[in-house]
Amino acid sequence: MSPISRGFRGRRSTPAGEEGRVPPGQYVTKDFPVLSAGPTPHTPLDRWTFSIRRNNSELKSWSWDEFQALPAETVTVDIHCVTRWSKLDTQWRGVSMDTLLGAVDHDEGYILAFCDGGYTTNLPIADVTGGRAWVAYEYDGQPLQPEHGGPARLLVPHLYFWKSAKWVRGVELLDHDEPGFWETYGYNMYGDPWKEQRYSGD
Amino acid sequence: MEGTAVQRRLTWQVANVTATVSETPSVRTITLAVPDWPGHRAGQHLDVRLTADDGYTAERSYSIASAPGEPVALTVERLDDGEVSPYLTEDLRVGDQLELRGPVGGYFVWEPTDMAPLLLVAGGSGVVPLRAIVRERQRRRSDVPVRLLYSSRTLADVIYRDELDSYGDGISVSYTLTRAQPPGWTGHAGRVTPALLAEVAWPAHEGPLAFVCGPTSFVETVAEGLVGLGYPADRVKTERFGASGGR
Amino acid sequence: METLDGNALAGLFAEVFGEDMTNTVITCRTCGTTQVIGETVVYPNPMAAIARCRTCTQLLILITQIHGVSCVDMLGVA
Predict the structure, then answer these.
(1) CA–CA separation, B133 vs B150, rounded Å?
(2) pTM above 0.90, yes or no
(3) Which chain B positions have a beta carbon within 8 Å of C8's beta carbon?
(4) d(CA B41, CA B237)
(5) Close Cβ partners of B144 (under 8 Å, ≥ 6 residues apart)
(6) Annotation: CATH topology of B118-241
(7) Per-residue pLDDT tens digits of chain A, which is 202 residues long
(8) Residues of A whose CB is below 8 A from B93
(9) CATH label, B13-104, candidates 2.40.160.60, 3.40.47.10, 2.60.120.10, 2.40.30.10
(10) Who is most buried in A105, B5, B61, B245, counting CB within 10 A?
(11) Which residue of A has its CA nearest to B91?
């Protein structure tokens, strides 16, 4: 056990009254930390598409303009990063995954989201439907910044934030749960912050 | 075999703070007593880990400010929005413990066996490992000629000023102040540019060895500038700190 | 966000490999560039230690430390 550093608290604090909103092991931040595993992609909007794929073939695709024309929602959610920070009342605008998946026939149980830069993450379809997930292109009333995943990222606030894949370009429909980037490296396949499912086996 | 250091796998160990010295209003040098310290090389660093009572930990890397043979010392700059540096520069007291891992780093290291003229280029707290290199050069009575170019925001931000100004023959120190210069300032002003490097750095044909340390953008600008002056890339050693000055 | 270099991973490498690796020369499997580990591009990320090729940005080395076990992936290194 590491020796305690006398008097060290770090940046953490949980505002009074918010304890019930903060999953175990998390602290509340007013910042919006940027975590990166590689260079920030910069796909021009006139080349951006969001696709739904199955078996390497594209079932449905939207250009940026087509995507902007879809019905969109503004939501306020709490987000929880596996690195222990939580940010409350974050506001996003985007297209519900229900709208996107509703455009294709599917009976698979899982998706693998894929992104510019090669990042992937896996999710059960049940966790990205029923109003639980969006493809968000605005944060806090402004176009989503590249460092935070712009032009668009997945938003799945009930799971650890590594599942809210930045620079998302589509989802692959799968009949099995296929580990994505972080899941391959030992992070939990599901990632429920309320059960502290940070790592594989938790 | 008396005096042989036991080879053990590098891992975290606990050191005691034996002294703290204020270098500037926001910079402090912390001297440590480290049990079984194996000795270090000039330019190396160590990792520091702080643990709060709920188990929360934060790790940062800091260059070793002292020369081999001197007590281990770190020089830390306080960052306003930092998580670790305010603790190290303000809260830590003599007698406290500090968990560390090191010394590490075999790439950004200088030995007097390298006889090439030495160019040291520092941005802000990047001067810390370079000061250790200068002290090692003195300690080993090396004749290697040294040019140090040190970029700081203001004169008040210059770390180790008295020591750097005390060096005589063989060590030439130039300062450039980027944000404000005092009245009558005869040093350089503004950021390090290819023109300033051309003026201050050893010419490439003398076969110099360069060490560049500081914030990432500073290091990359300077390294590119030196390569542009003809320095072979493998004769420009770089160590990037975060914009924060620590790592 | 600002990147660092392989020097920032020196302590982790020494702990995991048993010796300093910053001076070790590696070859990028993707583009063939040789570089010392100390000069790779490091993304400061608490989830894993990540070193990428300075020339082509492909992932060279990734190290996680989870539940006391270190896992090293060097598939990007030739």
Answers:
(1) 14
(2) yes
(3) 61, 240, 247
(4) 15
(5) B112, B114, B115, B116, B117, B118, B137, B170
(6) Rossmann fold (3.40.50)
(7) 678 899 998 777 667 677 789 999 998 999 999 999 999 999 999 999 999 999 989 999 999 999 999 999 999 999 999 999 999 999 999 999 999 999 999 999 999 999 999 999 999 999 999 999 999 999 999 999 999 999 999 999 999 999 999 999 999 999 999 999 999 999 999 999 999 999 999 9
(8) 6
(9) 2.40.30.10
(10) B61
(11) A7
DSSP 3-state of B143: coil
Determine the average pLDDT of the residues in B83-98. Answer: 96
Residue pLDDT, tens place only, B155-204? 999 999 999 999 988 999 999 999 999 999 999 999 999 999 999 999 99
Which residue of A lies nearest to B82 if distances are taken between CA atoms? A11
- Cα separation, A90 vs A72, whole angstroms: 16
Considering only CA atoms, which of A66, A147, A141, A149 is closest in space to residue A103?
A66
Is the ipTM of this structure higher than 0.85? Answer: yes
CB contact (8 A) between residue C23 and residue B240: no
Cα-to-chain-centroid distance, residue B170: 20
B84: exposed, middle or buried (C-beta count within 10 Å: 0-12, 13-18, 19+)?
buried
C12-53 pLDDT per residue, tens: 999 999 889 999 999 999 999 999 999 999 999 999 999 999
CA distances A157 to A18, A128, B217, Å, are 17, 10, 34
Q: How far is B83 from chain A (nearest CA, A)?
A: 5
Q: Cβ distance B88 to B77 under 8 Å?
A: no
List the chains bordering chain C where 3 or more Cβ pairs fall under 8 Å: A, B
Asked if B238 lies within 8 A of C10 by C-beta distance, the reply is no
Residues B79-85: contacts with CB under 8 Å, at least 24 apart = B79/B244, B79/B245, B79/B246, B82/B244, B82/B246, B83/A10, B83/A11, B83/B58, B84/B48, B84/B50, B84/B58, B84/B60, B84/B246, B85/B60, B85/B244, B85/B245, B85/B246
CA dist A137 and A159 (Å) reads 19
Q: CB-based contact (8 Å) between A85 and chain C? A: no
Domains in chain A, please, with CATH? 44-195 (3.90.420.10)
Residue of chain A with shortest Cα separation from C69: A186
User: In chain B, which residues touch A (CB < 8 A)?
Assistant: 12, 14, 49-53, 56-58, 83, 87, 91, 93, 96-99
